[in-house]
Specification:
alpha+beta; 15 helices; globular
């Protein structure tokens, strides 16, 4: 991967995409597969905000059935299968357990109806390229077997549980990067730390954007036939700040969702409990820990000022303690917490949890500004479909026949793996000098590029140093900096590797990563300390 500014700069593109989250990179990838000349600008790092704040799932959205959103659920279930196919190293089946109780809301009959509908809406779920990714039908078990499988399930008035399958996205940040890499492999250009300062407007038509390279503070102008605003929770702010004379009549509502990570509380199943106020809160196994979430609360401040608060964490802890059957969680049990803002289309329901995750593709010509499209709403699972729908609008706007989407029919770059089980077994045999933990982690999180990282470690022995229980090695840090546009400690710890996503690593690991980054990125002492201070604010829980 090369940053757009590190190559000879071209100043005209068919399409410019603003925003490097999962929506923006999917739009860039979809456009690149149709033969369009594409540039993407992200003011922070790729997948830094909403795309990194997910429950790490690719799922159909079982809860939307109660709102009779069968179309949304069907679309999500179809896209779940697509992600299993095109990104087999990232997306895996995971069993969900939903306990039932002797009350009206959580009783067996109501759940059984929902399970049958969910199965019917995903009848093609067995048609996966990797046969090990087939998802079975749901099943119902009794109370005693439920407690035998997962002891943290509340047992008062327990009548049993239903077990169904969705998919876990083991590393949303790297999957987002994988989509971007796929776009760039087809000729798309991109830059992180590149802020769109304003639109170039002539006769009420957007003809391009003016961009600040935040790494050098240089300004550049780029022309485009069409500009697509995919900035998520910042979508309306981009429109307002870029040109104050735009008649902007729609707004993004924002919902906060946080997650906490603790020691292992559940084992093989993700467990979903409905709270007294009708929300679902989940405990999910992830990397030998438990991932707990999510909250869903309206957020009214500036998205630039957002951070996870102690109050939000404590509210989630209280909710878990009230609804699950283990010893009470304490604030000190939280090893790490992360959060983000979801963009919700303004005309949806008042309560953010009840709001649909539908999306909207808005042609700003309706506001008297041609050449600009704004994409709003949606969720990670349906981002590829949203991008394909966006290209329909692009085709009309450019008056070009761009053909049909093919992104559901081809592997992402470095994910061309027909059987993950065979792939991992072959890696173990080929690289006996590495532990199975290291092979598993690198094979799943880097796909075919794991060979590059393993070879780095073979030829430079210090880079084989194991940094955590997952088996991650120092070569990943070098690879992130040299090959994946990592420019900050935050990029390295939270989005290129998993070294920081379970909380602060060991002091030894932290120091060796900082030392490596300082040397390769040529930081002086002041810049190094600045980077340390920034990343420690993320590691440290709010007090």
């Amino acid at each position: 991967m090369k940053r757009l500014f590190d190559e000879p700069i071209e100043n005209h593109y068919d399409v410019i995409v603003i925003g490097g989250g999962i929506t923006g990179v999917c739009v860039a990838y979809e456009a690149a597969t149709r033969g369009l000349k594409v540039a993407l600008f992200e003011k922070g790092d790729y997948g830094q905000a909403t795309s990194a704040a997910t429950s790490k799932l690719i799922h159909g959205g079982l809860r939307y059935l109660k709102n009779f959103e069968y179309g949304l659920v069907r679309e999500s279930l179809t896209e779940r299968k697509v992600w299993e196919n095109i990104a087999p190293n990232f997306v895996y089946p995971i069993p969900f357990m939903v306990p039932t109780y002797s009350n009206l809301r959580n009783n067996k009959v109501v759940l059984f109806i929902g399970m049958v509908l969910y199965d019917l809406l995903s009848l093609d779920k067995a048609w996966t390229w990797d046969k090990s990714k087939k998802l079975p039908l749901h099943k119902t078990i009794g109370a005693s077997q439920t407690l035998k499988l997962e002891t943290c399930v509340p047992n008062k008035n327990l009548t049993g549980s239903s077990i169904y399958y969705d998919c876990q996205n083991i590393n949303p940040e790297r999957l987002t990067l994988g989509v971007l890499k796929s776009a760039m492999a087809l000729g798309a250009k991109s830059a992180n730390y590149a802020k769109v300062k304003s639109f170039a407007v002539k006769s009420n038509k957007v003809s391009g954007v003016n961009v600040i390279d935040l790494l050098t503070q240089e300004e550049h102008s780029f022309a485009a036939d069409l500009t697509i605003n995919c900035s998520g929770p910042w979508a309306d702010i981009v429109l307002k700040s870029a040109n104050s004379d735009i008649k902007n009549e729609h707004h993004i509502r924002r919902s906060e969702g946080i997650h906490i990570i603790t020691k292992k509380l559940c084992y093989k199943h993700a467990i979903t409990i409905m709270t007294k106020d009708g929300r679902h809160v989940m405990l999910m196994p992830w990397r030998n820990h438990t991932l707990i979430g999510t909250t869903d609360k309206p957020y009214f401040g500036s998205p630039d000022d957002y951070s996870v608060t102690k109050e939000s964490i404590q509210d989630l802890i209280d909710e878990i303690n009230e609804n699950y059957g283990f010893e009470k969680l304490k604030y000190s049990d939280v090893q790490f917490a992360y959060g983000g803002l979801r963009p919700l289309v303004d005309d949806q329901t008042k309560e953010s949890y009840e709001t649909s995750r539908k999306y909207e593709i808005f042609d700003n010509v309706k506001e008297g500004l041609d050449g600009l499209i704004t994409v709003e709403g949606g969720k990670y699972t349906t981002s590829r479909k949203l991008a394909s729908q966006t290209l329909r609008v692009v085709s009309k706007k450019l008056n070009r026949n761009l053909g049909l989407s093919i992104t559901d029919k081809k592997y992402l770059v470095d994910s061309d793996i027909k059987s993950m089980e065979s792939f991992i077994k072959q890696l173990v045999l080929r690289y006996p000098q590495f532990s199975e933990a290291t092979i598993n982690y690198l094979g799943r999180n880097y796909g075919l590029q794991c060979h590059t990282i393993l070879r780095l470690a073979i030829y430079d022995k210090p880079l084989a140093k194991v940094l955590n229980d997952d088996g991650e090695i120092l070569a990943e840090v070098v690879y992130a900096i040299k090959k994946e546009m990592a420019y900050t400690l935050s990029d390295i710890f939270f989005r290129r590797t998993g070294l920081g996503t379970l909380g602060f690593p060991s002091e030894e690991t932290f120091k060796v990563v900082v030392k490596t980054a300082k040397e390769l990125l040529k930081w002086d002492d002041a810049r190094t300390q600045e980077e340390i201070d920034k990343v420690m604010k993320i590691f440290n829980l709010p007090k």
